Amino acid sequence: MRGERERTVVRLAALTDDYAEVVEASRWTNADDEHDPEGQTIAYERSRTGALGAQTRAHLAEVDAALARLAAGTYGVCERCGRPVPEERLEARPTARTCVRCPATS
Q1: 55 with 101, same domain?
Q2: What pTM value is reported for the model?
Q3: For 41, how many CA atoms within 13 A lie in the half-sphere containing its CB?
Q4: Are residues 39 and 64 located together in one domain of the fold?
Q5: How far is CA 96 from each of CA 14, 34, 64, 77, 102, rounded to the nearest angstrom?
Q6: How many domains does the structure of the chain reveal?
Q7: Which range of residues forms the domain containing residue 94?
Q8: pLDDT tens for residues 38-74?
Q9: What are the residues facing 77 on neighbouring strands?
Q10: Do 50 and 89 belong to one domain?
Q11: In this predicted model, what pLDDT tens digit does every residue of 11-23 receive, in sequence order?
Q12: Exposed, middle or buried: residue 19 (CB in 10 Å: 0-12, 13-18, 19+)?
């Protein structure tokens, strides 16, 4: 789990750098993205990179929550019903908070 956190932090840093580069590039283009063929590409990249950054931040929060459960001794216990989360589910999704029977509430 710690390795996953480290990989996620590295990915988030790279996305943050990418976003800063896209923002900087947009300063040197026409502000009218809709009518500038290159502007549309920059707007798309800004939007895509921003969305990927948000997803990565959310994943990092999930990893941190899983690490907190690990430290508290509650990792692998369903937060809804208290039953064990099947090992197969934890292998597929290490940040899982619930067993397969209980719906996640996020």
Answers
A1: no
A2: 0.76
A3: 5
A4: yes
A5: 26, 41, 12, 9, 11
A6: 2
A7: 76-106
A8: 556 777 888 999 999 999 999 999 999 999 999 999 9
A9: 84
A10: no
A11: 999 999 999 998 8
A12: middle
